[in-house]
Specification:
289 residues; mainly alpha; 9 helices; 71% helix
Length: 289
C-alpha cells in the first residue's frame, strides 16, 4: 500500500506539472489568499478606512480559501472551471466546515482545562557554580501535546477534507436530507477519512506542505553578508510557496481521486472525458500502479 500511495503521489505531481494553466490558476489563487492574510495582519485598526478594510478582508480571506479548495477539487474530478459552480461548491464547503470548527474549539477548551490538572513541575532554582539539573520527562505534557497533534493535525483536517469531497458531488439539501440517511452517509465519509490509504496520502502530503516548509523557514543556515542573507531569505520564501502549493494541491487531489463517486454526482466534465474513467483523468487513481 505504501508503494502504491507513493507512486500515485509521484504520478499526480507529474500530471499537475503537465497542466501549467491549472497550476498557474492555483498559484494565483494561493498568492491572493496569502496577500489577503498578510494585509489582514499588517493593517492596523486606527482609522475608519482601515477598520473597513480589515472587515472586508475578514470576509475575503475565508472566501478566497474555499474558492481555492473548490477549484482544486473541480480540477481533480475532471470538471471544467465553471466559476458559478465553483462558488456554489465553496459555499457548501464553508457550511460543512463550521461544525468541524465548533468541534475543534470544544476539543481545544477541554484539553486545556484537563491539562490544568496535571501541571508540569517547576524547575529547581540553582546558583553558580552549581549546574542546572536536567528536568525529567513530564509524561502528561507529552501526552497532551500528542493528543493535540493527532486531533488538530490529523483527525479534524482529514474529516474536513472528506466532507468537502462529499458535499461538492451533490446538492447540500441532498447531503443533509433524511436524518438516518445523513448519519449513514457521514459514517461512510468518516470511515473513508480514517482509512489507512487516506491517512498515508495525508501523511505524505504533510511532509511537503508542512514539514519541509517549516524546515525551510526555521532551520538556521549560516550565511555571510547582507545581500547573501537577503537572497537566501527570498529563496526560502519561494521554496516554501512552491512546496505548500504543490503539496496541498496534490494531497487534496489524490484524496478526491481516492474517494468513490457519489450517486447523483455532478457530471460537468471536460469534453471527451468520462467521469467514470480514471485513465482519462490527469491525476492517477490510487488503484493504478
Amino acid at each position: 500500500m505504501i508503494t502504491t500511495v507513493f507512486k500515485t503521489w509521484v504520478e499526480a505531481i507529474k500530471a499537475l506539472l503537465k497542466n501549467p494553466i491549472a497550476l498557474a490558476l492555483f498559484a494565483v489563487l494561493y498568492a491572493l489568499l496569502l496577500a489577503s492574510l498578510y494585509a489582514f495582519v499588517a493593517i492596523r485598526e486606527a482609522t475608519v478606512s482601515q477598520v473597513a478594510i480589515t472587515l472586508l478582508l475578514l470576509v475575503m480571506v475565508p472566501a478566497e480559501f474555499f474558492i481555492w479548495q473548490a477549484t482544486i477539487l473541480a480540477h481533480a474530478r475532471g470538471f471544467n472551471f465553471h466559476w458559478r459552480a465553483i462558488l456554489i461548491d465553496a459555499c457548501k464547503q464553508l457550511v460543512v466546515t463550521i461544525p468541524i470548527l465548533i468541534i475543534g474549539y470544544v476539543f481545544w477548551i477541554l484539553l486545556n482545562k484537563w491539562q490544568l490538572h496535571y501541571p508540569a513541575p517547576r524547575a529547581a532554582i540553582t546558583f553558580p557554580p552549581a549546574a542546572a539539573k536536567p528536568q525529567p520527562l513530564h509524561w502528561p505534557t507529552l501526552l497532551f501535546a500528542t493528543a493535540r497533534l493527532l486531533i488538530f493535525g490529523l483527525m479534524l483536517p482529514l474529516a474536513t477534507i472528506h466532507l468537502w469531497i462529499g458535499v461538492v458531488t451533490q446538492e447540500l439539501r441532498t447531503f443533509f436530507g433524511d436524518g438516518t440517511e445523513t448519519l449513514r452517509r457521514l459514517g461512510q465519509i468518516m470511515a473513508r477519512a480514517f482509512a489507512s490509504s487516506s491517512v498515508l496520502i495525508y501523511a505524505l502530503g504533510a511532509i511537503f506542505f508542512a514539514l519541509i516548509p517549516y524546515a525551510l523557514l526555521f532551520v538556521h543556515i549560516p550565511v555571510k553578508g547582507t545581500k547573501t542573507d537577503f537572497v537566501v531569505f527570498i529563496a526560502r520564501l519561494a521554496l516554501v510557496f512552491v512546496f505548500t502549493l504543490v503539496g496541498w494541491i496534490v494531497t487534496l487531489s489524490t484524496l478526491a481521486r481516492n474517494a468513490p463517486a457519489a450517486t447523483g454526482a455532478r457530471q460537468d466534465v471536460t469534453p471527451g472525458v468520462s467521469p467514470g474513467n480514471p485513465a482519462a483523468s490527469e491525476l492517477l487513481s490510487p488503484q493504478s500502479g
